[in-house]
Every structure is written in C-alpha cells, then in structure tokens.
Specification:
This protein is an alpha+beta fold. The chain is 32% helix and 32% strand. It has helices spanning 11-21, 31-36, 80-91, 111-123, 151-165, and strands at residues 2-5, 40-47, 50-60, 63-71, 96-102, 127-134, 139-144, 171-174.
Length: 176
C-alpha cells in the first residue's frame, strides 16, 4: 500500500470515489480541473492497482488546505483515512494544515455524523480552532494541525482557496 501522486490510469477509480463520497453541491471542482489547477495536489492511496482513497490539497505559502479526503465507500472504517492523514501530517510537517468540517451543532439533523467526523480528525492530529467559516449555505468548523493559529494567515489561505475554486470568500468569525 502506498500513497502516490495521481496517475491517469486511476482516473475512473478516483472519479468514482470522489462522486460517491461528496454530494454534488460539495463538489466545488471537477476532477479534470483539479488536475490542471496550479498549487494543488491530488494523491491516491493505492493497493495492488486499486485506489483505496484520495486526498486533494491546496498549497499556499506555508499552509495546506485539505479540500477533499475520501475513502472508497466499500472499505471505510478500516484505518485508511487515518493512514492518509498521518502521511499528510508527516509529509507537510513544516506547514500549517487546515481543513473545514460542517459545523458540529446538536441542532443539526445529522449531528451524530458531524460529531463522528470531528472525532475522526481530532484523534488524527487535528485541533478544533476557535474560528468558524461562514458561507452562504452553511457554517464550517476550522480545524488545524496546531492548537493556535494565526487567523490573518488563515484568512489569506481562505481567500486563495476561494480563488482556486472560483467561490466567494468566506466570512471567518471567532466562535462565541
């Protein structure tokens, strides 16, 4: 089992994982555009020519934003997501690594799923920051591989991510 940069021979498997893991409204960028976009990297977790998972990163100065992390739906909950995250944290240990998850709030109908997702990232080396990303349709908790963050740096990263995705810039607020 190894993590490699995307290879076109895995296109169908990667695209299937992407489409099966994220609802249409969360697929901000097509796989083809991912492959052509500067300052981004798509990696695959491969075992004997089978793609187990993917991670899509956006790099900006000394920061990394994990936009997508997904495991083949047939083999989830077997440690592959943790494997990819550990690889990412080790590979980019000199950088601040961020990701956003849907707001974990007991009032949400899918609270248990959101809480489980949050716990997954917390057990794998991420910290919930004191900040949220407010977007048109929903709010996101901002997670980082460090307990303390420089919010101005994150705002610059968010602005860059928005440019890459051709999306509006988020409103970043401190949690109450």
């Amino acid at each position: 089992m190894k993590i490699i940069k995307f290879n076109r021979k895995y296109y169908k498997q990667v695209n299937d994982i992407y489409k099966n893991s994220f609802p249409k409204e969360e697929r901000y960028i097509s796989l083809n555009k991912m492959l052509m976009t500067k300052d981004t990297k798509l990696y695959c977790l491969v075992n004997q020519e089978e793609v187990y998972g993917i991670i899509y990163l956006i790099e900006y100065h000394q920061m990394i934003f994990i936009l997508y992390l997904a495991i083949n739906t047939k083999i989830r909950s077997k440690g592959y997501g943790s494997y990819i995250l550990k690889w990412c944290l080790d590979t980019y240990k000199e950088k601040d690594i961020y990701l956003n998850i849907e707001e974990v709030n007991e009032s949400k109908i899918d609270y248990e799923i959101r809480k489980k997702r949050q716990n997954f990232y917390l057990k794998n080396g991420f910290f919930d920051t004191d900040y949220m990303s407010i977007e048109d349709t929903q709010n996101f908790n901002i997670l980082c591989n460090h307990k303390e963050i420089n919010i101005e740096n994150y705002k610059a990263l968010d602005k860059f991510v928005a440019k890459v995705l051709n999306e509006p810039i988020s409103n970043i607020i401190k949690k109450e």
